[in-house]
Amino acid sequence: MSDTETKSGPAEESDLGAAGAQLSTAPQEEAPNLPALGAIGWARWFWRQLTSMRVALLLLFMLSLAAIPGSLIPQSGQDASQVVDFMQRHDTLGPIYDKLGLFHVYSSVWFSAIYILLFVSLIGCIVPRTWQFVGQLRGRPPGAPRRLTRLPAYATWRTEADPEQVRELALKALKKRRFRAHVVGDAVAAEKGYVREAGNLVFHIALIVMLVAFAWGQLFRSEGNKLIVEGDGFANVLPQYDDFKSGSLFTAEDLNPFSFDLKSFTGTYEASGPNKGTPRTFEAALTYAVGADGKERSTTVKVNEPLEIDDSKVYLVSHGYAPVITVRDGRGKVVFEDAVPLLPLDSNVTSTGAIKVMDGYRDAKGKWDQLGIQAFFLPTYGGEGTAVVSQFPALVNPVLNLTPYHGDLRVNAGLPQSVYQLDKSKLKAFKDSKGAQVRENLNPGESMKLPNGAGTITFDGVKEWAGFQVTQQPGSGWALGGAIGAIGGLAASLFIQRRRVWVRATTGPDGITVVEMAGLGRSESAKVPEELGDLAAVIHDEAPTAADPKPADEPESEPAAADADSQTEGAEKK
Q: Which residues contact 30 (CB under 8 A, 6 or more apart)?
């Protein structure tokens, strides 16, 4: 058996013929005859360019670049207030960005154009390649070239086995290694590595799936936030949200029907060490029901462990405290009694907010008035002489600091205002007998008396609140599947090689069978000659090299030595 050879020179097409053609389903491009092109010719040329692989990669690269501004520049669909703030701080860049559509990148004309062109390019590239690949799967490997010595990997030896026996051995060995093989004339033709082309097609189809899923998710997505105090509930309807944003094709009917109640919130923190105050667990105990008449169920929502209902997810995103306040007017009548959520200011949950008594309040003289109370809450107060900030996020020594006002809260002015802030432009501060503004720290159960018999404010206790984000992102599962498919298809197209092998067995002039083996890959690779050598070794074991004929003048007295030399020579060649 001769050595397996690897030749660097390319095979001539006239010698290989169909054997070396189309090891890939990539479309063959022909240089257009520009002077002879008419309108239809130019259209065909443009279509070929658009559906070529290099243009698809270029569009994919452009899409990646186009998405960068959407991550770096505030987007109106995500936070309109940040866009307004950016416009106010950048007198020159703001108008330019606005004209270029950089504040709404993903819905801009230029981003949509790149997106659609990439979509069309991928479809135009996949459809013909798919039909061509199906045709190759239905066909058979082409017959052996006339001159196998021209191929990059080549091996040959002479054997005493019959040509038919060698071809049967080759056919069996190739099929055992999962080659598609059949006998064509005096040779066995085999091919392997179709998964490479299948992976290439899967990669492109997965990109289309990802593009469709992304567009679907952006058009029909929704995202809303809701702050809920322990004991309160939420129904998934638009008026229940504190803030809500959605895609352009989303409607209120697309909201999944469900509701839930916050039974309790549990938060634990590191009590000592360098990480003192760091949250250890945040858990919200919920009872929820799907639909109007759904059965009530219990669950626990944790950080990064949302409640999933259909394609909606309920995330736990924030936490704080809601002091329970009771306000009585000058006549002792209860005019306000509720838990008031306050917003955290730091990691130790020093919180601030406002208490607004808009209706029902009368002062000591029976005159209608409105109360506004600025509130600061400290879960762990350090005591007199310490800074007015919390020392620890848990409820160790809760203190509520109140500063009351009275007058016009301006809630009837028709202007929007935050429920956590006081508009003090029409309010007057309560003053004590010395003319100082009234301000007082309260522990749970304590009350604050307003001057001149104007009423009392009682700190009854503390409840905890949890902030939830409800997202509805249709197509996210398809996007994940497309991403996994794209990675798998790309891996197959990169690491699997399409190759062909031929084994020819013919009877030589001296009556000895001549075996020739050759391999051809889509690209030069050491794997093709290695695989050919392994196959040759398997076939050679069943059809070994024939002994060299004895010279006419060789003496008859040394047959043993001659046989030994022949076996040694065969082993060396093998």
A: none
**Structural tokens at position 220:** 């029909």
- Burial tier of 564 (Cβ tally within 10 Å: 0-12, 13-18, 19+): exposed
Please give the pLDDT value at position 570.
Answer: 39
Tell me the two tokens of residue 70.
Answer: 């959407």
Q: Taking each helix axis as running N to C, give the angle between helix 93-100 and helix 80-89, from 0 to 180 degrees, rounded to the nearest 10.
A: 130
Burial class (CB in 10 A: 0-12, 13-18, 19+), 421: middle
Q: Which of 195-209, 406-420, 439-453, 484-498 has the lowest mean pLDDT?
A: 406-420
Which of the four pLDDT bands, split at 50, 70 and 90, describes residue 348?
A: very high
Cα separation, 174 vs 184, in Å, equals: 14
DSSP string, 319-344: EEEEEEEEEE-TTS-EEEEEE---EE
For the beta sheet containing 153-159, the strands, ordered from the edge strand earlier in sequence to the opposite edge, are 5-6, 153-159, 513-521, 499-507, 187-192, 180-184
| Tokens linked to 194 | 């179709």
Rounded CA separation 388/348 (Å): 12
Q: How far is CA 206 from CA 30, 198, 480, 486, 573, in A?
A: 28, 12, 10, 5, 49
Q: Which residue has the tokens 């259209």?
A: 43
Compute the average pLDDT of residues 521-546. Answer: 87
Closest CA to 87 of 244, 247, 71, 79: 79
Helical residues (DSSP H) of 222-291, grouped into ranges? none
Q: What is the pTM of this model?
A: 0.68
Are 351 and 320 contacting, i.e. CB atoms less than 8 angstroms apart? yes
- Tell me how many degrees the CA angle 72-78-79 measures, rounded to the nearest 5: 85
Residues 434-472 have pLDDT tens digits of 888 999 999 999 999 999 889 999 999 999 999 999 999
CA within 13 Å, CB half, 481: 9
What interhelical angle do 476-495 and 194-220 show, nearest 10?
A: 160
How far is residue 31's CA from residue 200's CA, in Å, rounded to a whole number? 25
Please state, in angstroms and rounded to a whole number, the distance separating the CA atoms of residues 100 and 85.
18
- Rounded to 10 deg, the angle between the 527-542 and 163-176 helix axes is 130
Question: Cβ neighbours of residue 98 under 8 Å, at least 6 residues apart?
Answer: 87
- Residue 303's alpha-carbon distances to 38, 61, 226, in angstroms, are 63, 35, 16
Give, in degrees to the nearest 5, the angle at Cα 33 between 31 and 35. Answer: 145
What's the Cα-to-Cα distance from 555 to each of 21, 93, 151, 183, 560, rounded to whole Å?
Answer: 54, 101, 42, 44, 12
pLDDT at residue 506, rounded to an integer:
93
For residue 258, pLDDT beyond 60:
yes
Nearest to 309 by CA among 465, 466, 467, 473: 473
> In terms of Cα–Cα distance, which of 125, 466, 563 is closest to 264?
466
Among 204-218, 293-307, 511-525, the range with the most confident prediction by mean pLDDT is 293-307
Which residue, chain included where needed, has tokens 């105050």? 277
DSSP line for 341-405 = --EE-STT--EEEEEEE-SS-B-TTS-B-EEEEEEEEESB---TTS-SS-SSSSSSB-EEEEEEE
Look at residues 335, 362, 445, 450 and name the one whose alpha carbon lies nearest to residue 402: 450
Q: What are phi and psi of 407, to 5 degrees?
A: 135, -140
